[in-house]
Specification:
By secondary structure, this protein is an alpha/beta fold. The protein is 31% helix and 28% strand. Strands 1, 2, 3, 4, 5, 6, 7 and 8 form an 8-stranded mixed sheet that branches. A 7-stranded mixed sheet has the order 9-10-11-12-13-15-14. Strand 2, helix 6 and strand 3 form a beta-alpha-beta unit. The protein is elongated. The relative contact order is 0.08. About 1% of the residues have low confidence.
Length: 414
């Protein structure tokens, strides 16, 4: 379904709800079975009837978002405002909730519902979830209820959610997913049409793995997709959760991009110049750098205002043999002027979380015994020394030992 068709469809539903009619964007049977709309909530007596009538979601994201007093929340595809109003009660008068919807009729309906509810800490925005009209680092939590699956550019939606979240911010949505990929007992076209007829929003749904991959590509870590209601034909409602990596004020951790190459290599060279980072003495070209490292599991820490890269971490494969699929070797470098700001610790923590999401069970590396700061950083985050390679190589004419360190996951590959 095209973008304009979706807006027209939900605008018509908003007008119907505003006129006092009960609305549904799927078969009535799905609503009656408790999987969609207002049936997914426990107690709605505190809300205006109009907000309840216009509820068209597939779950209750407010119940899983763990909202706290004073937080700022963004609801993607806020519809008649049910999740915005429930969130507003959770975050209290010191918190703020934004509702974003592409349909002007829905925005108008939601604003009237908020006025009727006496909610003074809510703001409804007209715009698309692929281009959120808010500055970066604005919100603590992004929620959504069966809307992201309707987008024809889900990568853009997730990238925008990542952008507007503050470091440590949470992503917690209800959505519709399919359980298998197309070549694995997937939904054929007839099955998709049956599912679409029943629940109204499966035509654009992602598989579980596709959802996980897109969240990781956007920069999220601690990704989980929990299947809830089974709608048949491989279609499920699901709770999707993830976190934007934590780092100090004025900083951000995001995936490494090709445009970061000059700064990444300059930081690399500065680390090599200390004589304590590696046997190498000259940073490789960008082509050499990227060829020797995995295409994923590459992150940079940046200054939020200037965008300057202040540190990086990346993984390399240990072996091409299948038995080592979950074993990687990593490198981490921080700008010489920023090594006392906790950047290395934040980068390494984010890298560990992303590695576990990717199914990595062992991260390993080598550290010169003289590099006490690096050794302490790694040991603080669960690495242990597993041995010493004595006089393994000459560095500036001196034979050097290397400590072998590794971190074994307690949740992946066990």
């Amino acid at each position: 379904m095209a973008h304009d068709e979706i807006i027209d469809r939900y605008s018509a539903l908003a007008r119907a709800a505003d006129a006092g009619r009960t609305v549904a964007d799927c078969g009535q049977e799905a609503f009656e079975q408790g999987g969609f709309g207002a049936a997914g909530y426990d107690d709605l007596t505190v809300l205006p009837e109009g907000a309840v009538r216009a509820s068209l979601g597939c779950g209750n994201p407010v119940a899983v978002a763990e909202l706290r007093h004073g937080e700022t929340v963004l609801d993607l595809g806020s519809g008649g405002g049910i999740d915005v109003l429930l969130s507003a009660r959770r975050v209290g008068p010191r918190g703020t909730v934004f509702g974003l919807d592409a349909g002007p009729a829905m925005v108008d309906l939601a604003q009237r519902n908020a006025e009727q509810a006496g909610a003074s800490n809510v703001h409804f925005l007209h715009g698309t979830i692929e281009a959120i009209p808010l500055p970066g680092h604005t919100v603590d939590v992004v929620i959504s209820n069966c809307v992201i699956n309707l987008s024809d550019d889900k990568a853009a939606v997730l990238a925008e959610a990542f952008r507007v979240l503050r470091p440590g911010g949470r992503f917690g949505v209800s959505d519709v997913v399919t359980a298998q990929a197309l070549d694995e007992q997937a939904l054929d076209e007839q099955a998709r049409q049956r599912a679409e007829q029943r629940i109204g929003c499966a035509a654009g749904s992602l598989t579980v793995q596709e959802y996980r991959d897109l969240l990781a590509a956007a920069g999220f870590v601690q990704v989980s997709v929990t299947l809830t209601a089974d709608h048949g034909d491989g279609v499920h409602s699901a709770i999707v959760q993830a976190v934007k990596p934590v780092i100090g004020p004025g900083l951000e951790i995001r995936p490494m991009r090709e445009g970061d190459a000059p700064e990444v290599l300059a930081i690399y060279q500065a680390g090599l110049d200390t004589g304590q980072a590696s046997f190498e003495t000259t940073a490789p070209s960008w082509e050499g750098f990227t060829a020797s490292r995995l295409p994923h599991l590459r992150y940079v820490a940046t200054d939020s205002d200037s965008g300057e890269v202040l540190g990086w971490v990346a993984a390399s494969a240990v072996s091409s043999r299948p038995v080592y699929a979950g074993v990687v070797e990593h490198s981490i470098y921080v700008h010489p002027g920023c090594q006392a700001h906790g950047i290395g610790r934040a980068l390494l923590a984010a890298f560990i979380a992303a590695s576990e999401d990717a199914g990595v069970w062992t991260i390993q590396s080598g550290v010169f015994p003289e590099n006490a700061a690096s050794l302490a950083l790694h040991q603080a985050l669960g690495f242990r020394v597993v041995g010493t390679r004595e006089r393994v190589g000459r560095h500036h004419g001196v034979w050097r030992d290397v400590l072998l360190i590794e971190r074994r996951s307690i949740s992946t590959g066990t």
